[in-house]
Amino acid sequence: MNSLFLRYLGILMLLMWIATPALAQVSLKTKQYLLLSGPENTASHQFAEDLAEIWSMPGVSFGSDLQPVSIMDGATRLERMRDQRGHLAIINGQEAWQLLPEHPQVKVVSVLWPNVLYLISRLQPPQIVPLTAARTVRAPLQALEVVRAWDEQSPVSLLQETNWFRQEETIQALEGFKEDVFLSWGSYPLQEIRALLNFPGYYLTEAQDTLQKVWTQQLPWTRSYTLPAETYTGQPALQLLAEFPVLVVHETVPDSLVNNLLRSLFGHAESSNPHFLFRNLSPQHNLLFQQKLPYHPVARRFYRFP
C-alpha cells in the first residue's frame, strides 16, 4: 500500500515539475493591463480597441495584454487609476489640464489625434466668421466653454441663442440645421461633414484671428491647428481650434511597457495602412504641451524634451 502511494506521489511530483515552465509561460502571457476609455461609439473607445489589437501583434506586447474597459467620463477613469483599478487611460484635453494636478501618480505618455472644432457657416458670403456675425448657434455640450468665451465677445447672448446637443448625437444634429453656425469637435476627415458640405449653402470656415486668440487664451488645453487643404473637396487650408485627447499611465507601470507603447503608437501611425485615428498622430504635437502637462520620464526622453 505504501509502495503504491509513493509511486503515485512520485508521478504527481513529476507531472508538476514538467508543468511548472508551462504555467510560468502562461502567467507571463496573461499579464494584463487595463486601458480605460470612453463608452462604445466614442472615438476614445475605438482608439483603445485599435491599440489593443496592435498590442496583440507578434513582437509588440512582450508577454502582456491591453484590455480596454469602457468608463463614462475621464474623472472616473482617473479615480480608478488612483485606486490602482486601471493602468492606462484616455482622457480629453480639458480633463488632462484640469484634473491631472490632482493625480500626481498619473503621467502623460502622449497627446493623441487632433479633434478640430468644425465651424460650419450658413452666413453669406462664405468667409471668415466675424465676432458680430453669428446670431444663432448649434453646438454640442462639450463646446460649452467655446461658446461661453465667444459669448463674452459677442453683442448678442450666444449662450441663450445656442441649441445644444450631445456629441454622440452629432449626425442627427447636422441634419438640416437652420442656425447661422454649427460647431462640433471631431477628428478628420469625417464622412458626415463631407456629406453636409455637398449641399449648397453650407461652408466649412475658420474664425477670425481675434476670436481664435480669445479661444486659445481662455481655453489653455486648446491650440490653433491647420486643417490641410483638400481634406474636404475644394476646401483651402484652414486655421481651426483643436483639442487633443491624452493617453496617460500610472507611475507603477514598467518603463519598458511605456517605451514599447510609444514605439507602437508612432510605428503604426507611420505604417502603410494605419487605423483611422492613428493617421493624424505625430510626436511633434507633444511639443505644444511639454511645459504644461506632467509627462512620464520615458516619454520626455522619447520626445527629447530638454
Mass-distribution shape: globular
CATH architectural arrangement of the largest domain? 3-Layer(aba) Sandwich
Number of domains: 2
How many helical elements?
10
Q: What is the fold named in CATH at topology level of the largest domain?
A: D-Maltodextrin-Binding Protein, domain 2
Mean pLDDT: 87
Helix content: 25-40%
User: Biggest sheet, open or closed, and with what strands and sense?
Assistant: 7 strands, mixed
The CATH H-level superfamily of the largest domain is: Periplasmic binding protein-like II
Give the percentage of residues in beta strands: 15-25%
Q: How many β strands by DSSP?
A: 12
Low-pLDDT stretches are 14-29
The first-level CATH class name of the largest domain:
Alpha Beta
Alpha-carbon distance between the two ends: 75 Å
Q: What is the element string, with H for helices and E for strands?
A: HEHEHEHEEEHEHEHEHEEEHH
Which class do the helix and strand fractions yield? alpha/beta
Overall radius of gyration: 24 Å
Features:
single chain; 306 residues; alpha/beta; D-Maltodextrin-Binding Protein, domain 2; seven-stranded mixed β-sheet; five-stranded mixed β-sheet; 36% helix
Characterization of the model:
The chain is of the alpha/beta class and 306 residues long. It has two domains: 10-113 and 245-303, Periplasmic binding protein-like II (D-Maltodextrin-Binding Protein, domain 2, 3-Layer(aba) Sandwich), CATH 3.40.190; 115-243, D-Maltodextrin-Binding Protein, domain 2 (3-Layer(aba) Sandwich). Helix content is 36%, strand content 21%. It contains ten helices and twelve strands. The chain has helices at residues 2-29, 43-55, 74-82, 93-99, 144-151, 170-174, 191-197, 209-218, 255-269, 297-303; strands at residues 31-37, 64-70, 88-91, 106-111, 115-121, 137-140, 162-165, 181-186, 203-204, 222-227, 238-243, 246-250. The strands form two sheets. Strands 5, 6, 7, 8, 9, 10 and 11 form a seven-stranded mixed β-sheet that branches. It has a five-stranded mixed β-sheet with strand order 2-1-3-12-4, sandwiched between helices. Helix 2 (43-55) links the parallel strand 1 and strand 2. It starts with a helix and ends with a helix. The relative contact order is 0.16. The model is unreliable at 14-29 (pLDDT under 50).
